Amino acid sequence: MNTEGLDPHLLHAWLAARSLARGLPMPVPEHGGFRVDTGSEMETVRWVFPQMCDGLKDVARRIHQLRQFVKVCDTAEALRAALPAHWTVHAPSYVMRANGTMPRRQLADGYSIAVEQSGPVTSVRIVTDTGILVASGYGAETLGVFVYDRIVTEPEHRRKGLGNVLMQTLHEARRDPHSFELLVATDDGRALYQTLGWEKIASYASASIIMA
What we know:
Layout: H1 8-22, E1 28-30, E2 33-36, E3 45-49, H2 54-62, E4 68-72, H3 76-82, E5 88-89, E6 93-98, E7 111-118, E8 121-128, E9 133-142, E10 145-153, H4 162-172, E11 180-185, H5 187-195, E12 198-208
Parallel strand pairs: 3-4, 10-11
Antiparallel strand pairs: 1-2, 2-3, 4-12, 5-12, 6-11, 6-12, 7-8, 8-9, 9-10
């Protein structure tokens, strides 16, 4: 029995917060999911669905252009089975939520941290004493959801607790202490976030057309 899927209201809040964090248009309800006009060099538009549905299949059947993505809160295997052959399914990700208080660590010697707040969006940057950016991330809060977005630590500066400090700083920037904290993680990221007390609540699969 397939137990995947995400509450549509939660998915909408997550997408709205992500759009705020990235300066994108708000998600638009469409075909049982949501359309986000991303307009980047890599992606012009994405349709995101809370679960498998006929609307997803209808969207996929009529799309043959590059740079258009279909995403669903389900497994990569389930998405592959629902798509026409000209679609390529990408590496799986996972929707995760915070589960309790994140462990606290002190910022390692040789680094400093800067926090900027712009309305509902918070950005955090960690730099070396010589001013080199080594870790960064964003948070955005709306509709009772706080989204962690574009959390990055440069490979040569990992295993020093920088990601932990960055996440904790964003966590403390929330305006509503009861907000639902969400992020999307890769396989590698999932293992890291689990050590910080996060838990998977849904698979997240993505597909696009690689060749016309």
